[in-house]
């Protein structure tokens, strides 16, 4: 619960001072963007906006929480009264979930009074910084897997609720399954999983464990064969389940060598249709390195839930316009441009994206092949119906096809699509 | 809610097979430990156990969630019935929150039937892997700060609920404040914060913003002086608030140079008691580099909530004993030892820790200066009263004093205290 307290203290002290001095009602525009991509990345992936809109809709200050803030001296009586009647009545526009972004892309724009917008800062950034980081890492893994399915199994390596959001973000990015049951329950994402080493260790021997699993789950299951000796594990698996066994899983060792040996052994046992699933500290580079091996599915855990080296997207939430006037912090990078932005992505006739044009307080020239990147999320406080997670997933797939091919390389390089930000005239 | 679904699919398929084959009731012991510390680290910090015990107490499968699992085919009728009546009735023992750990330390031991223990795996690991990672990073920052207070302000850079847990873990590690209001509400942690650049930009000019803030919050506030020109910002701050101003904050630029210049300017304006707070991408190394500068408080954000290079603690939950018999996955590191462990830490008469002794299925010789490291968390399903967060915080402070001095170095090195694991006879 406590959605409204997922907020930084300073937002309420700013609110308090602004209510007192009369600036709280000034019309403001806040913008979410990244100054740069994480080291080595060529694109970012917008993720979490669907989750965020549910949270914004429910962002209210219950009586008990207001009383707590009042007692602790965080707010005074006037601010407490204001919070008690708060709901967001402004507008939110932004890039679609599953859209790509680059440095300077205005991925979310929140407009309304200063007061109603400023107190959403932390929630907006927490959701987007987390989910975008996971989705970008996951998208690279999907590219590296070259069409082979990937299952997300990293829940245990991240905060228990971040795990659910990670499952959602990696499914958006093209993963096929998650191990996380809450993600299945909340978002309808397909879940998968069969057994851990503990299940084998629990039994008197490996054949007993395999027999039990097959009896309970059928031959369309995956047997984990590396608890003791892998070759013997595979022989035991086929002896118990027969060549109709759906899959074996390898979770340790040199997966490249083991996948080859396992394939040969399975084939020699007649189990030519039995799949090989590999897991164990796989990131996009490890997945890419297994491209030539007889692997049928990848399990990715730690690397995806920690963003594979970039655990946060580095997005910021900046005030860019007050009462129609562009504002900008002067000590920043000179390139920062104030004002509400409108963004389009320009494409070649072939469909390849070539440039993103972001115009402050205006609208870019619209040519054939241009695509408007911003959509309404909330209008005058009312949520707009959003695409489904499946639709967002398809959108990302299409976006990744649209960027120049070198944008999909795993190596470090420039952003796949350059962004030109045009200041207000 | 949905605590019980913060679980991996395979835990329920293992449960299903074990219920069917009769092994579900075998008495088991699962152990949480780290095979290694993150690169560069000399100790780990146990954090999150208090939070975990609340979740374990409430770990139940509501009817609607069981129905969902049944419909999706994750469980059969027998397993569904078992889940509906589930509550943990076993024992949990472990290291105190705030205790240090090293590779091989059995930081948590969960005992009971296979069925009741196996389904806690993901929840246990999610909480501990996250909170331990944050606490370890935060503890290094506190060491680097050499007694100067540190405020945690990283909520926006991590998942919204991970933010609350991060605030708790960094307070445990010795931070003085957090920006996160939910952490104040749930855990009683002191919160702090005053204003962002947006507050200055909202106003017609900087003096107007400062005057508003001082009018609302008094002179015991912190003015953010780097929105435009820092020197002018400091002059404006003192002109508005007088030399009684509590503090200024610098959030950008070369903090080393700026802190010196700001101190000189403040002194020249008679504001010799006005503090200087610095923030902006500070990690333990950046904090250490500011040791000689006139800085009074540090704000740490991104680095602490992403574990400063180690976003997950790498803890595992392994079955180590079945019906009194030690078990171990053979293909692992030979050093892995099965069986329930008992751990002590041995100290010199001066109080310095010199060794941790971990004995499988036995009790270490107890000498003068030895300290038993494990305590009861849950006995036969009943939670044991835990230390308060303040007590755990004091415990960590004492533990950090007890390790050899080189254990506190920020550079890479061996674990501060060696662990000897003695197999069962």
Would you summarize the structure shown here?
The structure is a homodimer. The first copy, chain A, is α/β, with parallel strands linked by helices.
Q: Provide the gyration radius of chain A in Å.
A: 25 Å
Oligomeric state of the chains in view: homodimer
**What's the CATH architecture of the largest domain in chain A?**
Alpha-Beta Barrel
Query: Which geometry of chain A do the CA atoms define?
Result: globular
Rounded mean pLDDT of chain A is: 96
Instruction: Give the strand order of the largest sheet of chain A, numbering strands 1, 2, ... along the chain.
Output: 13-12-1-5-3-17-18
Count of helical regions of chain A: 15
Largest sheet of chain A: 7 strands, antiparallel
The portion of residues forming beta strands of chain A comes to 15-25%
Number of DSSP E strands of chain A: 19
Beginning-to-end CA distance, first to last residue of chain A: 45 Å
- CATH topology (level 3) name of the largest domain in chain A: nicotinate phosphoribosyltransferase
Helix content of chain A: 25-40%
At the fourth level of CATH, the homologous superfamily of the largest domain in chain A is: nicotinate phosphoribosyltransferase
Description:
The structure is a homodimer of 425-residue chains. With 425 residues, chain A is α/β, with parallel strands linked by helices. Chain A has two domains: 211 residues, nicotinate phosphoribosyltransferase (Alpha-Beta Barrel); 102 residues, Aldolase class I (TIM Barrel), CATH 3.20.20.70. The first copy, chain A, is 37% helix and 20% strand. Chain A is built from 15 helices and 19 strands. Chain A has a seven-stranded antiparallel beta sheet. In chain A, helix 13 links the parallel strand 10 and strand 11. In chain A, helix 2 runs antiparallel to helix 6. The longest helix of chain A is centred in the first third of the chain and has 25 residues. The first copy, chain A, is globular and about 80 Å long. The mean pLDDT of chain A is 96. At the A-B interface, helix 1, helix 3, helix 6, helix 7 and helix 8 of A face helix 1, helix 3, helix 6, helix 7 and helix 8 of B. Chains A, B: Keywords: Glycosyltransferase, Ligase, Phosphoprotein, Pyridine nucleotide biosynthesis, Transferase. Chains A, B: It comes from Phytohabitans aurantiacus. Chains A, B: InterPro entries: Aldolase_TIM, NAPRTase_N, Nic_PRibTrfase-Fam, Nic_PRibTrfase_pncB, Nicotinate_pribotase-like_C, Quinolinate_PRibosylTrfase_C. Chains A, B: This is Nicotinate phosphoribosyltransferase. Chains A, B: Belongs to the NAPRTase family.
């Amino acid at each position: 619960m406590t959605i409204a307290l997922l907020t930084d203290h300073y937002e309420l002290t700013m609110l308090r001072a602004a209510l007192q001095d009369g600036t709280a009602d000034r019309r403001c525009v806040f913008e979410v963007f990244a100054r740069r991509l994480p080291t080595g990345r060529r694109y970012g992936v917008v993720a979490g906006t669907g989750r965020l809109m549910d949270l914004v809709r429910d962002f209210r200050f219950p009586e008990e929480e207001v009383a707590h803030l009042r007692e602790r001296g965080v707010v005074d009586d006037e601010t407490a009264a204001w919070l008690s009647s708060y709901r967001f009545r402004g507008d939110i526009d932004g890039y679609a979930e599953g859209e790509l972004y680059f440095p300077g892309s205005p991925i979310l724009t929140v407009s309304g009074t200063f007061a109603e917008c400023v107190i959403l800062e932390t929630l907006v950034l927490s959701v987007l910084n987390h989910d975008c980081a996971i989705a970008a890492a996951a998208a690279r893994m999907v590219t590296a897997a070259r069409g082979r399915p990937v299952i997300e199994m990293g829940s245990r390596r991240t905060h228990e609720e971040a795990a659910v959001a990670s499952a959602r973000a990696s499914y958006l990015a093209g993963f096929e399954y998650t191990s996380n049951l809450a993600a299945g329950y909340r978002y309808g994402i397909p879940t998968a999983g069969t057994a851990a080493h503990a299940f084998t260790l629990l039994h008197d021997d490996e054949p007993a464990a395999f027999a039990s699993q097959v009896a309970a789950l059928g031959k369309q299951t995956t047997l984990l064969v590396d608890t003791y000796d892998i070759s013997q594990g595979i022989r035991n698996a086929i002896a118990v389940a027969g060549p109709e066994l759906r899959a074996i899983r390898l979770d340790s060792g040199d997966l490249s060598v083991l996948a080859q040996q396992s394939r040969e052994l399975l084939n020699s046992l007649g189990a030519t249709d039995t799949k090989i699933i590999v897991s164990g500290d796989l990131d996009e580079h490890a997945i890419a390195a297994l491209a030539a091996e007889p692997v049928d599915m990848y399990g990715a855990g730690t690397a995806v839930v920690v963003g594979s080296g970039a655990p946060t997207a580095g997005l910021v939430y900046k005030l860019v316009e007050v009462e129609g006037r562009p504002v900008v912090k002067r000590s920043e990078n000179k390139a920062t441009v104030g004002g509400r932005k409108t963004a389009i992505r320009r494409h070649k006739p072939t469909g390849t994206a070539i440039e993103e044009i972001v115009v402050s307080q205006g609208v870019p020239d619209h040519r054939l092949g241009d695509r408007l990147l911003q959509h309404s999320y909330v209008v005058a406080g009312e949520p707009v119906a959003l695409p489904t997670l499946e639709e967002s997933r398809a959108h990302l797939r299409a976006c990744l096809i649209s960027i120049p091919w070198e944008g999909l390389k795993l190596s470090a390089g420039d952003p796949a699509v350059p962004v030109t930000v045009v200041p207000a005239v």
